[in-house]
Amino acid sequence: MHYFQYKGGELYAEDVPVREIVSRFGSPVYIYSYQTLLRHLKAYHEAFDGFPHIVCFALKANSNTAIVRLLAQNGGGADVVSGGELFRALKAGVPPKRIVYAGVGKTGEEIRYALKSRILMFNVESADELREMDRIAGEMKVKAPIALRINPDIDPQTHPYISTGLKKHKFGIPIEDALEHYQLARKLGNISVIGIHKHIGSQLTKVSPFVDALKRILRLVDELAEQGISINYLDIGGGLGITYNDETPPPPAQLAGSILPLLEGRNFTIIMEPGRSIVGNAGILVTKALYLKKGEEKEFVIVDAGMNDLIRPSIYGAYHHIRPVVKNRRRTIVADIVGPICESGDFLAKDREIPAVRAGEYLAVMSAGAYGFTMASNYNSRPRVAEVMVKGKEYSLVRKRETYSDLVRGESIPDFL
Ligand SMILES: *Cc1c(COP(=O)(O)O)cnc(C)c1O
């Protein structure tokens, strides 16, 4: 059951016509489905049912507080990578004991904020960070609960820009150096070692890289046990892929089915950090066709959403289905769907077959819930778009469209001008 469906030739978000939302809140607009978000979170809970676990939603995929609140209300936690994301998670009501904090460059200020908030644990990515955390925790007279992020050197077989678990990447501690780092962590008086963490990449469409990485991690856990270092939290990271076009990624149940047998007899709480697989297919971006242009070699549909609103096609060459909000029976055209930004890289789709579009009509960019709004910018001084959440027949603005004055908020003209 998909919650973005055609009824009578019109695209609906749950029980609301997309057209109604656009006419109320304007274009472009992100629309999120409550039921889809809930179903995706539940799929993880059900898959790992019977094994202690926490589903820490990766806020970087979509940090709108309404979405984070929905997930928190249903047992979800948060994986944050900045003080700003921690602020959002707490504001949305995520219990601190369901928050984990990763990232290679946590500042002293961010570490203090997270310690004060009493989060579950930090996923630490270097020896330097470990020492800095020890120093700060000492000053605050608290103990910093940590896992070390281990880089297992596994190729996740995904796009190079979203792959993170190979030796050449900046993330984590190389697995060969892990033991030494754990020994250092144990020696530091204000550090409390409780976990182990890995995250090998995003948009993974096979379980084998998860399994291979986990096997390496478990071997390390056994070595640590021999040294008297015990692990309570096993954080397997995020990264399950979604269907954008014709990919067939494993659902959470299949992931659980492959990895739970490896964990038999171990007393871990499993932490997972899904982002894309929770929110990716729970959101669409609706945009209006402004102009049609027939170049000598190409046809262009120029729309009012640009790379500043959804950058994935521009930076990853990502594919998103593009569907008419109201179906038509016109001939099919092959066109580039492009935005208004002054960059050749500003496109939502290239050489795409779609039913002919007319100016003024709306198009839905599907699977836009993850790494959509969170990567949006004000480039070309374009106000960021509105976000709306739908639940059944109800819907509500969850972030209002920015205005021109928002664009210059905080700027000032110096006296010498
Ligand atoms: C990005 C990220 C995630 C989420 O990845 P998805 O592919 O969106 O599931 C989880 N953990 C860490 C540490 C990340 O950097």
UniProtKB/TrEMBL annotation:
This protein's UniProt keywords: Amino-acid biosynthesis, Decarboxylase, Lyase, Lysine biosynthesis, Pyridoxal phosphate
Record-linked Gene3D superfamilies: Alanine racemase (3.20.20.10), Lyase, Ornithine Decarboxylase, Chain A, domain 1 (2.40.37.10)
Positions bound to substrate: 276, 312, 316, 343, 371
Pfam families, per the entry: Orn_Arg_deC_N (PF02784), Orn_DAP_Arg_deC (PF00278)
Domain Orn/DAP/Arg decarboxylase 2 C-terminal, chain residue ranges per copy: 32-369
Catalytic residues as annotated in Swiss-Prot or TrEMBL: 342
The family this protein is said to belong to: Belongs to the Orn/Lys/Arg decarboxylase class-II family. LysA subfamily.
Protein name: Diaminopimelate decarboxylase
Taxonomic source organism: Candidatus Nitrobium versatile
Taxonomic path: Bacteria, Pseudomonadati, Nitrospirota, Nitrospiria, Nitrospirales
